[in-house]
């Protein structure tokens, strides 16, 4: 898929040590493009993916080989994914999150306001930096409901990483603290995307049109609770 697009990278990632990446989510192509970006920056990203993917031949070998983390959704074992992510970060791994819990539902492709707190919680527990990452163009390469990428005309996909999100004044795992951390992470992602696009999203007090529900991602954002993030 990456060969069918022009990839443009900007920004950097810490070369070593545990790190949490948090990205907007526009397409099933995002894990491919973010992985290409991270590898180019010297890191191997680990994803949290739904456990049923481990039952698919070949896919299972890819997931195991990549050190990815299975998520047993809606089961008593769901927390093992959280534990696995924390352990991976503490080992010095790079763990990737899409906090929106699915593709953006905004018709102008700005990040959704309903997000999960998983990335924030893991960052607060481990003390690892959170790096905001944005994809732009993957929604044209592989639209959310499409089965195959659009090969022609060749699309340009841009991936940019910003500076770490400052969470240094936050501690604890109460809902208010995690919501504040998540708010800061999503604000950093939105600002980075605005800079990349050269435009600003609608003000918070202006209603933003939404796409119909239905598109979902196989990558799990991992979160113990959702919050609506103010603009």
Automatic annotation (TrEMBL):
It holds the Pfam family Acyltransferase. Keywords: Acyltransferase, Transferase. Residues 19-138 form the Phospholipid/glycerol acyltransferase domain. One of its GO terms (molecular function) is acyltransferase activity. It comes from the Bacteria. Residues 195-231 are annotated as: Disordered. SMART domains: PlsC. Residues 195-209 have a biased composition (Basic and acidic residues). This is Lysophospholipid acyltransferase family protein. It comes from Actinokineospora soli.
